[in-house]
Amino acid sequence: MALLLDGTPPSGDLNTSFMNNLELEGYVAAADRDTVTKTYSGTLEDIPATIQVGFKNDDAQH
Question: Is the pLDDT of residue 54 over 70?
Answer without folding.
Answer: yes
